Amino acid sequence: ACSSYRLRDALHPLWQSELTVSGGTRQSPINIQWRDSVYDPHLKPLKIHYDPTTCLYVWNNGYSFQVEFDDSADKSVIMGGPLENHYRLKQFHFHWGAINEWGSEHMVDSKVYPAELHLVHWNPVTSTSFEEAIMENNGLVVIGVFLKLGAHHAGLQKLVDALPAVRHKDAIVEFDVFDPCCLMPSCPDYWTYDGSLTTPPLTESVTWIIKKTPIEVDQNQLEEFRMLLFTSAGEEEKRMVDNFRPLQPLMNRTVRSSFR
Ligand SMILES: NS(=O)(=O)c1ccc(C(=O)NCC(F)(F)F)cc1
Ligand SMILES: [Zn+2]
User: Quick one: pLDDT at residue 23?
Assistant: First the structure.
């Protein structure tokens, strides 16, 4: 199975022109080897305060579907964990596979999940905008949450019900009052490491926080993700699946864990 992943990665249309940041030393995603991660007792619990009324809309950006938030004030913020100050929530999106056997970007001991949620935050202390923060060292924090096949996820269903309205690239639909906290596992444990955006411009500006425990979604919900399209209305339809980047080398990095 492993070799087929490699073959699939290399041949995959989305990544055939795989852009590697020339001389990149902290690229994402990575395979997190649990036994090589180092428990850091100084890591604090992650504090998350999301204001559901900052939710604005859902749109299909041609890579994934993305839920955008009003980040003009410190209303939906995270702090604590490995962070020196607070970070504002800008958007969240997902990556998934054509089938349940793959789809996540990160892996844990080479275990791959059918999908992965990314909650993207930026540092309003060192940057004046998200666009500026993507160029700053540690300008961004992305929380990664694995999705596994299991029980129906009632909180996610509200978002899934909006997907038919954003089937095509650049489609947008109003989506008000959604609390992304419902997508967080209750277990506080996480890994953290310094990495990059996993889509162009692949900038090395991300502090990654990967939750240890996955959330459960059911088959129908995953299949709704797979009904989205990479293509715009009127173009030949290409299903939006396998929108994940292949694994990147760990190079000279240590993954820290918040748990023993
Ligand atoms: N998959 S990821 O690493 O969480 C990820 C998060 C955010 C972006 C993003 O905002 N790209 C648009 C930008 F910034 F203008 F380039 C890309 C990837
Ligand atoms: Zn992502």
Answer: 81
Alpha-carbon distances of 94 from 67, 128, 159, rounded to whole Å:
10, 26, 12
- Paired strand residues for 142: 120, 208
pLDDT value at 17 more than 70: no
Look over the chain and give the mean of its residue pLDDT values, rounded to a whole number: 94
**pLDDT tens per residue across span 183-205:** 999 999 999 999 999 999 999 99
Token pair of 12, please? 């995959």
β-strand 31-32 against 215-217: which pairing, if any?
unpaired
Alpha helices of 49-120 — where are they, by DSSP H?
none
Which atom of ligand 1 is the closest one to the Cα of 28?
Answer: 3
And the tokens for 52?
């559901």
Query: Which of the ligands is closest to the CA of residue 61?
Result: 1
Distance 199 CA to ligand 1 centre (A): 6
Give tens-digit pLDDT for 209-255. 999 999 999 999 999 999 999 999 999 999 999 999 999 999 999 99
pLDDT in tens, 42-89: 999 999 999 999 999 999 999 999 999 999 999 999 999 999 999 999
- Considering only CA atoms, which of 198, 209, 206 is closest in space to residue 257? 209
164 C-alpha vs ligand 1 centroid, how far in Å?
23
- Compute the distance between CA of residue 66 and CA of residue 92 in angstroms, rounded to an integer: 6
The set of protein residues with a Cβ atom below 6 angstroms from ligand 1 is: 118, 120, 134, 142, 197-199, 201
Return d(Cα 59, Cα 228) in angstroms, integer.
11
What separation in Å is there between the alpha carbon of 122 and the centre of ligand 2?
14
